[in-house]
Design goal:
single chain; alpha+beta; elongated; 4 helices
């Protein structure tokens, strides 16, 4: 440990790699322990810019986990006029209550971003699967109704072109 800099030796090797040295330098010579609840910043390993992740939530919008990248088809119903944020500024899977509008019939509704998972027809929850899974599951929305589609076809932009 360097004098005057935070001691992160008790953190896992993965967290040590994600530690943002510049943003956390002002913390001084404190010892940062797992589960401490202290607000610090992390660098995202998937983004070249090293987007900051906040300790408490460990979730920040980066170029790889935005709604626009993870679920481009879902953004077709994003109401640009009523939502304060864009799909690029919104975390995929967020519980943010967003405004939606069908581009065909103009039907409007409000629902969390993660709401399109059909909980009634699926035996699993979103927490039990990964975004890259090829598993076929049920999805729903008020306009389209319910349909089956592979998870990765909705979350992988290479499989789900805009």
């Amino acid at each position: 440990m360097q004098p005057g800099l935070p001691d992160i030796s008790e953190l896992s090797p993965q967290l040590q790699q994600e530690w943002h040295p510049d943003n956390n330098a002002l913390l001084g010579g404190i010892k940062v322990k797992p589960g401490s609840g202290r607000r610090v910043t992390w660098s995202c390993p998937n983004c070249p810019a090293g987007c900051p992740h906040i300790w408490k939530t460990r979730r920040a919008v980066c170029q790889h986990n935005s709604l626009a990248i993870q679920a481009p088809r879902q953004t077709q119903c994003w109401d640009q006029d009523k939502n304060a944020k864009t799909p690029e500024q919104t975390l995929a899977g967020s519980n943010l209550r967003a405004e939606w509008k069908c581009p065909i019939c103009s039907h409007e509704w409000q629902a969390p971003v993660a709401r399109q998972w059909d909980f009634a027809r699926n035996d699993l929850t979103p927490a039990q699967v990964t975004s890259r899974s090829g598993q076929l599951v049920w999805w729903e929305n008020p306009v389209r109704g319910s349909w089956m589609q592979k998870i990765n076809a909705r979350t992988d932009s290479r499989l789900n072109p805009k």
